Structure formats: C-alpha cells, structure tokens
Amino acid sequence: MISLTRYRGFGGVSLLMSLVCLTFAFLAATNTLFARPDGHVNRGWPEPFSGYWESCGMPVRFSPTPHVSLAMRDANDQAIVILDPRLASETDWARRAFLAAHECAHHKLGHTSLQGLLARRSSSAVVLDQELSADCWAAELLGRLGHDAIVRTLSDHFYRRGLYSPGDGYPSGINRSTLIRICGAEGRRLRQSQAEP
User: For the residues of 127-148, what is the DSSP string, one character each?
Assistant: First the structure.
C-alpha cells in the first residue's frame, strides 16, 4: 500500500499535496453562487443572509463537498466558502445561511491559515475548539444582525442530533445546540444594547 504522506512524486511534492492542489484548481473553476462584492450576481442568488458582505465579504461557491460546507482558500489564496448543492433548496435557507456564517468564521478566526490547518491536523481537541468557536462566532454575528430565526432553527437542528458526533473531534449535536443558543443570545443582547439611547 502506498503511504500518501511518504510518496514523493510530481517534482518532490507529496501525492497528498498534489491532490490538494488539484482540488483547489477544481474549486477555482466552479461558479460563484452568491453576489460578489462588486455587485455582479451569478444565477440571481442573493447573499446568504442580509449583512453577509459587510461582515464576511467572501465569495460563496456552490460545489459538491462531502462536508456539506467548507472554508478554504482558492488557487489565488483568496478565502472562499463552499456550500454543497444540497443546500440550494428553499427549505434549507436557515442552514445555508448559518453554514455560510460558520465557514466565514473559520476564515476570520484564522483556522484556514497554515498554522490553523496544522493545528487542526495535530489533535481532535483542536478540531473541537475550532468547530465550537466557529459556531459561536456565526451565532453571535447572526444574533447581532437580527437573524434570530436562523439561530433558533440551527440550534433546534443540532439539538435533534442529540449526543451524536460525526467523530474526528467534531462536537455532538447537544454541544453545538447549546453553544449556538448562548452565543446567539449574546449577539441579540449586543444588538439591543446598541439600539438603546
């Protein structure tokens, strides 16, 4: 069996890195799903939630991914958010909006930097911390922007998963649900305190 981390091909670059580069090239060729900051709208899709461009400003691409959503950098090292086509359904509007904010959080919190990616590979505890901090950042942002229905819907979505965790350090549904509710409430509190004279 060939070890992906030991095999050296393609001019000294590991096979694993070659696969990552091919993935970047594929994703760079996919279409942008939501409006870009320059105002161009592709396929007539609106931004994932009102306030997305002011708070995140990253292109969101519609491309198949085994993880439903993904934060990554394209071939030009531009931060992008990938959403799976399964999220295009009108019934998935809240999940689509929350996952766009969650993936944006991974970029904003430095999880997609080289240091963040190396840390993530080192320990499942780092994966847990990154996932929960991205959930909290997203829920607080959505709460501050007045998207309480999205926060509630996603908290309920994860609550229904119960103690299930997909493994590899990812938190359980109950953990995610609780944190989303708490951080969303903090965002709502911040919004309300800013509205008071």
Answer: HHHHHHHHHHHHHHHHHHTT-H
